[in-house]
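Support reply, case 0932

Customer input (verbatim):
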Amino acid sequence: MEQLEEIVLDLHMPLRLAYGDGRLIELERHTTRADLETVKYAVGRFRDDGRRGVDGTLHRISAAKNDDGQIVRITLRIGRYVPYVAEPLRKWLERPEGILLIGPPGVGKTTLLRDLIRIRAERHGFRLIVVDSSNELFGDGEVPHSSLGRASRLQVGSPERQAKVLLEAISNHSPREIALDEIGYRGDLELMHSASKRGISLVASVHGHTLSDVLENTQLLPLLGRVNERGAAKERDSRPAFGMALEIRSRREVIVHQNLALAVDALLEGTDPEVDTVALIK
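Our regenerated output:
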């Protein structure tokens, strides 16, 4: 049960289980129309995007319908909070500057970000606003998971609304810090750059294995200091929107760039930046 991540009910198909270690298991029992109706009754009305959350949890239930509007598939995604996973990073996380998390899919960025927000909220309280895209960080229900701590949350049920909700957070709610997961896809970059210039610190995650990968993503360059080419050389024209960066190498190891500006400058000069390697809680 500790490794179970998804339960999939496809009409007339075997009950399917997906585990975190990659195992996919099909049981002999087949899903019936009555099974789907039982889950539907227990869940209540699904939103227009086919999703429903369970208040106070990280679980998510999604439904797919056929052309007649009948539910033919339900996926139950089991969400888990890993408490204190960010504690080995506390001495860096307690510093006031913003933080950029870097890592490929499946390495645990969202899990680390969730606990990181708990620690940052000790400093900022409800002035730390989480713009929760697709409600991946603190659950899809109206009541967020308790790991949100003292922070505030603005739900973003549809990814296309992320920029709009981010603008609302900046304009209407006087944040000291804003946290987002997986930026760079939904028109949010210019707003984040603007927020950093207005004294709002940022905590966000991006895809990539290393800081070098992020530097090669031209879409994300404004957040790293608007790098320009001057002849054969590349230079940073402004300060990054974040003070430090964390490269999540695995679920057990993080590389810390204490000063993101100096790290970017070093990479642009073709040298290796100074880093700290931190082992996470197993």
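We compared this against your earlier run and they match. Two observations from our side: The helical segments are 33-43, 90-93, 109-124, 162-172, 189-197, 211-215, 260-268. The CA atoms of residues 102 and 247 lie 5 Å apart. Please reopen the case if you see a mismatch on your end.
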